[in-house]
Automatic annotation (TrEMBL), chains A, B:
Keyword Transmembrane: yes
Ranges annotated as spanning the membrane: 489-512
Cited Pfam families: UDPGT (PF00201)
GO cellular component: membrane
Protein name listed in UniProt: UDP-glucuronosyltransferase-like
Sequence similarity: Belongs to the UDP-glycosyltransferase family.
Topological category with respect to the lipid bilayer: Single-pass membrane protein
Keywords: Glycosyltransferase, Membrane, Signal, Transferase, Transmembrane, Transmembrane helix
Native organism: Sphaeramia orbicularis (orbiculate cardinalfish)
Subcellular location per the Swiss-Prot or TrEMBL entry: Membrane
Superkingdom of the source species: Eukaryota
Length: 526, 526
């Protein structure tokens, strides 16, 4: 019994106190989404939770891009200290440079743009935190769980303030902050750093590069997360960092699996739901179905650059139009720019297109994509080889993974010519290995015991029922860096070893000297 | 394309070559089981695989304890170079000492007994390997997967020889060899070593103890696995260790989850199937049902010491009989010893009992168990608090986990008295926290999206269909210890840093000296 008392005082058994025996049938879910493409996949889970009888409230800033109301969930719109124009301008800043040849100073400019973006988001969050009426109302509602994407900090701040467990829904955070916060081991020797261009099989120079990238990243990420650290420290606990704040996440729903991500260690509360966005397929609109069906044996190409980019300079667009004129395939292209007068007959331009439904069509041959994770997974789910044009953010690294797996080719949007486009299309069509490898990847991805959406719903409900998932939380959260790596212990044991060695040597020396002295004295006396 | 070529040469894409597109509908499964309680849970999966249409062949040594034929699967009996008597004597040696007061030399004796045990098992495996007729027949069968428990090496050796992927089914290996072989990070700072008595929350002396245990363990395990290393090296590749051999396991089905195991990092190919043995519950035989139902509100106690121990010295048994005479509960006890003439009326002695069905009975109050993992999970599944008597092997550590979670009390079989038994029973009945915590633990354990048996079947079929699970294999397997920890890279970067520093300092010194010299010369000339 003494053991139990000692453990209780150490906090081991603390998790029992926060477990509930009653199942949550119709739970209350507070959702703090992140705008843009992040919302598009989270919305799938939000709608499903609502369908399964939970009451869902989504917090929406009055200025937003894609987050809208729905019959499936209630929205709470909150005023923010910036206008829609300011938000658009901020996002446009991030988009800037995509179609402009890079300069050596771009790197610093990109960092500054990201800091401006985080600054705006922090201002938005502060507006919510100062909205006392809404905050009191939300607190009084007694939510069972908070669902958020920790790409932005406001959700985690609310979970902490309202003392409700948080479920995170994300692809990953810059600098691997999600892994660091969740104490997930990430050996630099076989897990490539973002943008290092490495694969898990690294030679010595590549491993040096990987370690070097990790040093640089540490510094850059201090800059990047400074605004979030400020928010946590100001509104929660003095000195609290963003990493510390998000480390309290109960379950991390991660939008990847090992057909996309390199194999790596995981923590017990990391749940892989890669491909959640391409589970449901619908029929195509009649005219589109007719268009793609008319492509015959040559099939068709799906061309989109994601929810954020649907336009490009005429000079670049011309290269594509010229290329498409030379191929037998048809093309369905999400393009909101002014079309030229001579759009080829085999090209259908659309303001928005049902990407996943198109890729699921048996005649889909190639997917032209920017390499956002949603698109990549729709490519994998439907086994369509890709021509990839990375634009910004994580896209460069996503593309690298697909190219390394032999299921895609990469082209630079800035250097694209009609010749390279045509050559790449022909390569993907004629070299059967792309399709073959993509089919294999797709089969592995789709061969799973539970659909990602069901898994996401299960774990959200688990956290609601058991008021967290404390039994999955590792004790590493209570250790500092030195303790975690047992450096203090190794130091202590080395000290003990050295002391023992020195004492032994001293003893030996003392004995030898005594022996010698006695002999000398004996000789002298003789 | 250059990137792909480079990667192909590095082996990254090698895994594509071993993937198959065709689903395995009725696959062929070769099973190399481990005798004793290990077989009891593996048999559940074996039977289920057979039920789902796979052809299962179980290899059975002619001298065995619990492995028998069945209508569900085909057996291939092979001769071994030891008799049933020799095997029984070997197991009896392992059981020795359970009921004898420990001596200071026991530790060395235990190691010697284990080495003798592994030696006998290696001899058995060699008999199979030299059985050319059977080996040729097995090779010709073209199995899709080999299912084995790597607690003993023969299964892994066969998988390697026949070039078929292996699925491992186990609780864990001594010295955490399973984790080491599978490259699973195990920080000593928060993951208690076996038998250290630590919990994840360790203070400095406990962490020192943990590190110290890990050093001792490394040495002992070299002794323990020497026979297996010899087998791998002799029959497979010169110099191959057992760790290296089992590192090729495609999927590790692990008989635990985090209601039993302390939370820790996992690898992508580690699948948790804790509780697989208590999924199916049947009705009790009529007379037993009548007996336990007659216990009224006081309920009954289930008392077993596992498949290996069903007897005890009369002196110890008397303490239990005396204790049970004093309590209102009824007792169902698996006891094969000679019963005394005055067995209390509330005690039913049985040669074998339906443990899980009894624990599932609503009147089951307490589980007297030795702390084997099967029993522990049956206790958790059915939410029955436990009085635990660890006897040997991993049981001491299993018991420690349950006691630390506040769902069990531990008693020593050697020091047990009727008074301590009665007092412990009253404590568990009167202090409601034991039951309450056990119910919470049970609810968490049972709240899972998929039953462990379905999960085990899924992953075995996955390995059959895709001829392995190479996409889950980490690149760490290709690195040595220095490379894995990036020590060579850190050494190199330190060298570069020191060189730059020394050069900079030399430059500064040279400049300063030049400056001084010039000034002195100037002054002199003035």
């Amino acid at each position: 019994m003494r053991t139990i008392e000692r453990l209780t005082s150490l906090g081991l058994l603390a998790w029992f106190c926060c477990l509930s025996a009653e199942p949550v049938q119709g739970g209350k879910v507070l959702v703090m989404p992140v705008d843009g493409s992040h919302w598009l996949s989270m919305k799938i889970l939000v709608k499903e939770l609502s369908l399964r009888g939970h009451e869902v409230v989504v917090l929406v800033p009055e200025s937003s891009l894609l987050i809208q109301g729905s019959d499936s969930y209630r929205t709470e719109v909150f005023t923010v200290s910036y206008s829609q124009q300011e938000l658009d301008a901020n996002f446009n800043e991030l988009r800037k440079g995509i179609f402009v040849p890079p300069k050596s100073t771009d790197f610093l400019l990109d960092i500054q743009r990201l800091i401006d973006f985080t600054n705006l988001q922090v201002r938005g969050c502060e507006s919510l935190l100062h909205n006392e009426a809404l905050m009191s109302r939300l607190r009084a509602e007694g939510f069972d769980v908070l669902l958020t994407d920790p790409f932005l900090p406001c959700g985690s701040v609310l979970a902490h303030l309202f003392s409700i467990p948080a479920v995170y829904f994300l692809r990953g955070l810059p600098c691997g902050l999600d892994l660091k916060a969740n104490q997930c081991p990430t050996p630099l020797s076989y897990i490539p750093k973002f943008y290092s261009g490495n694969t898990p099989q690294m030679n010595f120079p590549q491993r040096v590069k990987n370690v070097f990238f990790s040093f640089v990243e540490s510094y850059l990420c201090k800059l990047l997360y400074a605004n979030f650290d400020y928010l946590a420290s100001k509104y929660l606990e003095d000195g609290m960092t963003y990493k510390e704040l998000i480390s309290h996440g109960a379950v991390w729903l991660l939008r990847y699996d090992f057909t996309f991500e390199w194999p790596r260690p995981l923590m017990p509360n990391m749940v892989l739901i890669g491909g959640i966005n391409c589970a449901k397929k619908g029929p195509l609109p009649a005219d589109l179905e007719e268009f793609v069906n008319g492509s015959g044996d040559d099939g068709f190409i799906v061309f989109t650059l994601g929810s954020m980019v649907s336009n490009m300079p005429d000079k670049i667009a011309k290269q594509f139009f010229d290329a498409f004129r030379q191929i037998p395939q048809r093309v369905v292209w999400r393009y909101t720019g002014v079309p030229p007068t001579d759009v080829p007959e085999n090209v259908r331009l659309m303001k928005w297109l049902p990407q996943n439904d198109l890729l699921a069509h048996p005649k889909a041959q190639i997917f032209f994509t920017h390499g956002g994770t949603h698109g990549v997974y729709e490519g994998i789910c439907n086994a369509v080889p890709m021509v990839m044009f990375p634009l910004f953010g994580d896209q460069g690294d996503n593309v690298h993974r697909m190219v390394a797996r032999g299921v895609a080719e990469k082209l630079s949007m800035l250097e694209v010519t009609s010749e390279t486009v045509v050559a790449t299309i022909r390569k993907l069509i004629n070299d059967k290995s792309y399709k073959q490898k993509m089919v294999q990847l797709s089969q592995i991805h789709l061969d799973r015991p539970l659909q990602p959406l069901d898994l996401a719903v299960f774990w959200t409900e688990f956290v609601m029922k058991h008021k967290g998932a404390a039994h999955l939380r590792v004790a590493a959260h209570d250790l500092n860096w030195i303790q975690y790596h047992s450096l203090d212990v190794l130091g202590f044991l080395s000290l003990v070893l050295i002391t023992v060695l020195v004492l032994t040597l001293k003893c030996c020396w003392f004995c030898t000297r005594s022996c010698f002295r006695k002999r000398t004295e004996k000789r002298k006396s003789q």
